[in-house]
Design brief:
The protein has four helices and 29 strands. The longest helix has 10 residues. About 6% of the residues have low confidence. The strands form two sheets. It has a 15-stranded parallel sheet that branches. It has one domain: Pectate Lyase C-like (3 Solenoid), CATH 2.160.20. It has 372 residues and is mainly beta.
Length: 372
Amino acid sequence: MKTIYLVVLLLYTVIFGCRKTANDEIILNFDEIQNKLSVAKDGDTIYIPTGTFTIKNSLIINKNIVLKGAGVDKTFINSLLTGIYTEVIIITTNNNAICRITGITFKGFTGTNHSYTLGISGSCKSLRIDNCKFQNGGDHSVFLDGDITGVIDHCEFIDDSQESILIRNSAKQDEIWEKQPLLGTDKAIFIEDCIFTFNEKGDHAITSINGQSYVFRHNIISSKKDRNATQIDTHGNYYNDRSGYSSEIYENTLLSEESWYGIYMRGGKGVIFNNTFSGLFYMPICFANDGSFLPTSGPPYHDDTYPAIDQINSFYVWDNKLNTLLISDGTPVLFVQNRGKEREHIQKNRDYLDCAMPGYMPFTYPHPLTLE
């Protein structure tokens, strides 16, 4: 294993194609960093020093490496990408890959629909994205698609246009929905000790689709009025997607001037406990079943039978507070949305319970990858 430093010496203009601006800011050359990634070997660390790295094309990483900046607000990666289906950094991982992105501020994404900052796909058992800042990250700052587990920790997300973090596993969605519950284990994507701020735009801090599992804990979400329809989300079974498989949401602080929902679960199973809500939430915690009322032209079809495909099941809710008051299921707070047959399909003491989950133990905090 070795570390590849993009050092800036007296000959930096010759060796690395860098230059300095009037305010002594180092502008890194895109081609040079892509060249370093091309010759790197699995296990290498690519170090990007203090300065601004502006890219006009996607940066491609297809090896198990660490991309390490000098720290938040020291190393900047600015994007000039435009158009749809564009990604600032595209990472393809291999089986049991180790992939880490750390110490970088990503800023200034100008893409339109379906644009991401980090797009990671494949199979990765030890992903870590840490100590980074994402500002105006496009539709999603982090888009994970595949058999991926690991942790996103100590990051800051500011004004993503849709979900800050979107996780899915489109290749194995049906297979995942046949597996056994894995609550309380490391078989999930963990988001912990992060800050999400929505001042000008944004929909969700996190959402999952197609059988993925996540643990969202010890985070802070803050949104201005009308900036967040929902702060924490799991998609349901509709528009050709399977639902997220499981969600463990606990010990978070949710602040909002006005949001429809704080935690909006549309499918799967999980636990929601010890979260603190402050401000205005029409329903701080809400269960729904999109497939029970949304007509669709293709699979998965509208489902008005019980149990509906991927619907809420085995969800436990306890010890959450709204403006210092304990949230309970009933007046004035209702946990279940009321569209179509949702309240027929999702019922207390059958599909969800307003109590602690027997025998449940959260996975080790902080996540072991954060200690390496």
